Amino acid sequence: MSKESRKTNLPEIQLVRAIAIIGVLSVHATSSATVVMKESNLYAAYNFFNIFMKIGTPVFLFLSSFVLFYSYYSRPLDKKLIGNFYKKRLKFILIPYVIFSVIYFVIVHFKYYPDRSLEESLEKFVVQLFSGKAYTHLYFIYISIQFYLLFPILLWLFKCKPNFAKWAVPAGFAMQYGFIIMNKLFLLTERPASSALHYMSYFMLGAVLGIYYPKLKEWFEIRKENVTASRLAGWIILLAVWLSASLGHVYVYHSARLYGAKYDSLLYHFLWNMQTITAGLVAILLSHLLIRHAWPWLTRSMARLGELSFGIYLIHPLFLFIYRLYPPKMGYPYLIHLWYLGGFMFALLASCVVVSLTVRWLPMSWIVFGKVPPAKRKPDIASKGEISTHTG
């Protein structure tokens, strides 16, 4: 790669990844509680964490587009670039996806379908592998693969028609809501959330931000000397939209789950969309604040968590599955709450330990967990170099 095409590493990206993976684990750790804890006085808290933190997957998809366009837009678009792009996706994304699809399919098979025939099992596995259904969280990889197929076309379009960037985000929203409305009317698919069209606003916003981030980065740096009237207004509006949509999303789910309230599916999608697409931008703002003002150990820990996030995403449901095999014995009213909190902590810590040790000691660990940089004794999250694209 030429020196001109190399870009400064963005330390804030790893912190955003850390925030996103914490969101994913929060949602998955509280999912069963939102069903079985409706009689609890703390049900509002379970619902809050389950919905307020429901930002992980869309933020990861937004980051995937952001990182790819930031890394590739300034490079010559030729066969070598495209070939290397797909080679990396095959090695660091597809192979781990296949391995974990096998792992989860086998677990589910022996747990729930032990009497299913080999022929039926193989047929079922092939269908689930090519549709992201081998386990509930693997749809994220399935969506990412769809985006990877679109990426060279979008990259060519943005490079050939730079003015398209002015309309890219509105076009992304138009495609996304056009798909949602058409699916609502004609049921194009029973799993709209597994289609890349369901996330086009995230992909387009990530693309525009990735292309123009060197110019826009200053906007995300909240500091005294950087304040202008327009920036202050922009920050306030962004935070207000994010917080309003997040709390509105929490409220409709709370009233629907607990009291059976009925809302149109478009309202759910709109609130989720506004919450999560602004959450990605808010997370970048927060990451810049953390880099400048947080304890160094905290930013280093979060940066490492971000580096491990893809592996954690893949393996954490396995630890939740194991943990839930041993529910607490009733007798102490608050023991169940500690048990749910323990599920989050166990999934997070066990995943971090396993991914870290695998990367450190297992040769060719990328086969299992993708591309993860080795841990440093004193990580420097502001180091220079080509930005990591291990989750995108």
Short synopsis of the structure:
The chain has 392 residues and is mainly alpha-helical. The chain contains 14 helices and no strands. It has helices at 11-30, 33-36, 43-52, 56-72, 79-112, 118-129, 139-160, 165-186, 200-216, 229-259, 265-293, 296-323, 335-361, 366-369.
Tag the structure with descriptive keywords.
globular, mainly alpha, 392 residues, disordered N terminus
Overall pLDDT confidence: 93
Question: In angstroms, what is the radius of gyration?
Answer: 21 Å
Give the ordered list of helices and strands.
Answer: HHHHHHHHHHHHHH
CA-to-CA gap between the ends? 19 Å
Shape: globular
How many DSSP E strands?
0
Topology:
Elements: H1 11-30, H2 33-36, H3 43-52, H4 56-72, H5 79-112, H6 118-129, H7 139-160, H8 165-186, H9 200-216, H10 229-259, H11 265-293, H12 296-323, H13 335-361, H14 366-369
